[in-house]
Write a structure and sequence with these properties.
The chain is α/β, with parallel strands linked by helices and about 350 residues long.
Length: about 350
């Protein structure tokens, strides 16, 4: 089969590799017909994730058809059309039972294994461990493009942004960073009753898109002197927003979130930070704020699937570019230079 193989920093190739086989009795093999690229994949290509070694097939998002199952797979069957969750889980360890499979102990303490510790989904076939827990049937009426957004991007924005931020009825929410994960938070914050959703970015295309995804207001960082002050002004009483969702992963945007929230407010950090961030506790200890972080657990996939079926959310809006699976390298180039191409998510499909 063909797959996208990592060969070290800034070195990848779409090349011939061996097809995956059932390794454990709880495995399944899925033929991928739809996949996409994540910002985490770009971090891997830069060499930022040393656990990813030469020869690893990349990718952790996909939709496909089950072609083989292990002897202990009870629910999933050959022929099922499925969503491959970015988080694998045994379902029985203490973390899985606590709805925190991102730290599954039977997977070495980390549920994110695809394209990281085992071969991933940017391939014609993928082996899925604990298939009964890591595969979700794709219902009739839900497209593969909608379904692939449930592998990672939508659960990440919803769980680590909206739910960890405890977005509630009537809240004013700021989303700092209107890339795909920020847009996922914007799209799902309205389902929790947010009264105002303010998108913050420096890219006009993304700010316009944010309104299409549900933002009520936008702030272009290039047009204001103090983003935190501008956000406070948009809150109901000028004291600050109830929830600030950090969706970039740099020190400046984390500080913006701190500057924007009211006393008792919440900062939900979703962005992946590659350098140290200062937390000015000497200023903030008195403000009764809450700060949350986390890796997605993908335990809300079924909930989000229901929202798609009801029409409450429309994740197909994420797709801006489409490629054939064999055009993977070209798709990476577009996604890595998203600003130049007005790209959000690129979707790749088998021919």
């Amino acid at each position: 089969m063909k797959a996208l193989v990592y060969h070290g920093p800034n070195d990848m190739a779409w090349e011939e590799v061996a097809e995956p086989k059932i390794k454990d009795s709880t495995d399944a093999v899925v033929q991928i017909d739809t996949t996409t690229i994540c910002g985490t994949d770009l971090h891997i290509l830069k060499g930022d994730v040393p656990a990813v070694t030469d020869g690893r097939i990349l990718g952790h998002e996909g939709v496909g058809v089950v072609t083989e199952v292990g002897s202990d797979v009870d629910d999933i069957e050959v022929g099922d059309r499925v969503i491959v969750s970015c988080i694998s889980k045994c379902g029985s360890c203490e973390y899985c039972e606590a709805d925190m499979p991102s730290h599954c102990q039977n997977l070495g303490g980390i549920g994110w294994v695809f394209g990281h510790l085992i071969d991933g989904t940017q391939a014609e076939y993928v082996r899925v461990p604990f298939a009964d827990n890591g595969l979700i049937r794709l219902p009739d009426g839900v497209t593969a493009e909608q379904g692939v957004m449930l592998s990672d991007i939508l659960p990440t924005g919803y769980e680590i942004g909206v739910l960890y931020g405890d977005v509630s009825e009537g809240d004013v929410v700021a989303v700092v960073g209107a890339g795909p994960v920020g847009l996922a938070a914007i799209m799902t914050a309205g389902t929790r009753g947010a009264s105002r959703i303010i998108a913050v970015d420096g890219n006009a295309f993304r700010l316009d898109t944010a309104r299409e995804f549900g933002a009520t207001d936008t702030i272009n960082i290039d047009e204001v002197d103090d983003v935190g002050a501008a956000l406070r002004e948009l809150s109901d009483d000028g004291l600050g927003v109830d929830v600030a969702i950090e969706a970039v992963g740099v020190p400046a945007t984390f500080q913006t979130c701190l500057d924007a929230i009211r006393p008792g407010g919440r900062v939900a950090n979703v962005g992946v930070h590659g350098e140290p961030v200062e937390f000015p506790i000497q200023d903030q200890w008195i403000n009764n704020i809450t700060i949350t972080t986390g890796l997605v657990n993908a335990v809300t996939t079924e909930t989000l699937l229901g929202e798609i079926q009801s029409g409450a959310i429309t994740p197909e809006k994420f797709t801006t570019h489409r490629f054939a699976l064999h055009e993977m390298v070209e798709a990476y180039d577009v996604f890595a230079n998203a600003v130049d191409h007005d790209a959000l998510k690129v979707v790749l499909t088998a021919e």
